[in-house]
Amino acid sequence: MELEDQWWKGQLAADIYQALRYKELKLPSFKGQSPQLNLRRYFADLIAIVSNRFRLCPTARHLAVYLLDLFMDRYDVTVQQLHMVSLSCLLLASKFEEREDRVPKLETLNNLGCMSSMNLVLTKQGLLHMELLLLETFQWNLYLPTSAHFTDYYLSIAVHEGDLHDGWPMTCLEKTKLYMAKYVDYFLEVSLQDHVFLCFAPSLVAAACVAASRLILHLSPTWPPRLQRLTGYAWENLIPCTEKLLIAHDSDVKEANKQKCQQPNQQQQQGQTAYHTSAQYLNRTNAQYPQQAPQPVTAPNHLPASYLSHSTANGPQSINTQTISTSLDPKSNIPNRAFQVSMHYTCAAPCFDR
């Protein structure tokens, strides 16, 4: 772990980061003109599920979805063909990002339960043909940075011992780093669900994931100078993207809360709790941090019910296949809102013990 931390601070990591930022400037433009754009969420979920099944790295998953986005943006593809295209994108991305022994094999893919439900059988010749078509489309260049390529570098300084939690010094730096990584992973997956995030540069999305995570975890300042220097983004640059991430998070919290309240006698046991939208606090300055009692630990995968956010001191159409279920709802057409800035949350974030 010590060597890994030192590696991120070295010149090699900085050179890799600068190369990614330079390559980012030459990424193909996404126009969102695919006739099957309303099916994008379904196929992004398919890629995510198969990726998780084979435990592929996040960069492979994000690159696969990005390849799918660019391909759909250029071609009118039938639904049945999109299944083949999606899996071919995942195979190409895994060959580019993963070790050879981790690349999914044809037989293993065909044995997946979702393949029979989609009435799809992959053949070696069919996959080779599709992979060649994809490679020719991208001119044999798969060096396409995604937000997942930047997050590890940003996470290296995302939490510092000098940060405050609700205005108090942190008592467990390692636990805070763990929760930060969990939340950044969550927001990365949120950004994968909606093509609206393709309007932002991948490095900006990655920075916004860190900023949103710091908001959720009540860390102050929200965007310290060290992160601004490392990422090259000021807080004002991150607000639009961070706002969309937090709106998606609030939607997930409300949905989870709704399902919890539907359980027998759940409302009687817990009573009524007021929840407010986190994104409305993005533009708030000089936030006050009242003293609060320590809160119980809640894993990020179970999304906290409410939280205090503060600013820095500086659906797809149905098709004849098995529905793929996820914990996130489609976030298409996320509205731009004017958020109030004078309210306070009624309860603290149950993120970690102070």
What is this entry, summarized?
The protein is built from 14 helices and 3 strands. It has 354 residues and is mostly helical.
Describe the structure.
The protein is globular, with a radius of gyration of 21 Å. Helix 3 (40-53) runs antiparallel to helix 4. It starts with a helix and ends in an 84-residue tail after the last helix. The chain has 14 helices and three strands. By secondary structure, the chain is mainly alpha-helical.
Q: Major β-sheet, in short?
A: 3 strands, antiparallel
Task: Note the overall shape.
Answer: globular
Mean pLDDT: 75
How do the strands line up in the largest sheet?
2-1-3
* DSSP strand count: 3
CATH architecture of the domain at 147-257: Orthogonal Bundle
Number of helices: 14
Radius of gyration: 21 Å
Q: What is the CATH homology-level superfamily of the domain at 147-257?
A: Cyclin-like
First and last CA, distance = 24 Å
Helix content: 40-55%
Query: At the first level of CATH, what is the class of the domain at 147-257?
Result: Mainly Alpha
Q: What is the succession of H and E elements?
A: HHHHHHHHHEEHHEHHH
Strand content: under 5%
Oligomeric state of this protein: single chain
What is the topological layout?
Elements (H helix, E strand, L loop, with lengths): L1 H8 L1 H14 L15 H14 L4 H17 L4 H19 L8 H5 L2 H5 L6 H14 L10 H8 L8 E2 L2 E2 L3 H21 L8 H15 L2 E2 L4 H7 L3 H27 L4 H5 L84
Antiparallel strand pairs: 1-2, 1-3
Helix pairs in contact: 3-4, 3-5, 4-5, 5-8, 9-11, 10-11, 11-13
